[in-house]
Amino acid sequence: EVHLVESGGDLVQPGGSLRLSCAASGFAFSMYTMSWVRQAPGKGLEWVSDINSGGVSTSYADSVKGRFTISRDNAKYTLHLQMNSLKPEDTAVYYCIKRGEPPRGQGTQVTVSS
């Protein structure tokens, strides 16, 4: 059974940084493109970033490009999202997913506020 457990969310001031992590289990993590998506209060899911199975190719939503960095450690079955220069509009619950599938975990709350 696929398990994806997100962590690292917190309350942070505008301009601050956070590093999200996702622990994966129950599937061949290294064979799949992984993604981060987010859901702001009262809104639908928004795609944030992808990383291919080998960790070589990445892509980002325009809203986070240049501020967020996705990475993965296939040996440790973990996915990360380094978020810098955070803005209030980044406030959301963040989920890691196998690309194309719905969120499975509880997500991690990121709140950007002064």
Gist of the model:
This protein is an all-beta fold and 114 residues long. It has strands at residues 3-7, 11-12, 18-25, 34-39, 45-51, 58-60, 68-73, 78-83, 92-98, 108-112.
Characteristic terms for this protein:
mainly beta, 114 residues, 4-stranded antiparallel β-sheet, 6-stranded mixed β-sheet
What does this structure look like?
With 114 residues, this protein is mainly beta. Helices cover 0% and strands 48% of the residues. The protein has no helices and 10 strands. It has strands spanning 3-7, 11-12, 18-25, 34-39, 45-51, 58-60, 68-73, 78-83, 92-98, 108-112. The protein has a 6-stranded mixed beta sheet, with no helix packed on it. A 4-stranded antiparallel beta sheet has the order 1-3-8-7, with no helix packed on it.
Bulk shape = globular
Radius of gyration: 13 Å
The string of secondary-structure elements, in order, is EEEEEEEEEE
- Note the quaternary state here: single chain
Q: Helicity, in percent?
A: under 10%
Average pLDDT over all residues: 97
| Unreliable residue runs | none
Distance between the termini: 40 Å
**Contiguous helical run count:** 0
Query: Approximately what portion of the residues adopt beta-strand conformation?
Result: over 45%
Number of beta strands: 10
The largest sheet, given as strand count, sense and whether it forms a barrel, is: 6 strands, mixed
Class by alpha and beta content: mainly beta
Widest sheet: strand ordering: 2-10-9-4-5-6
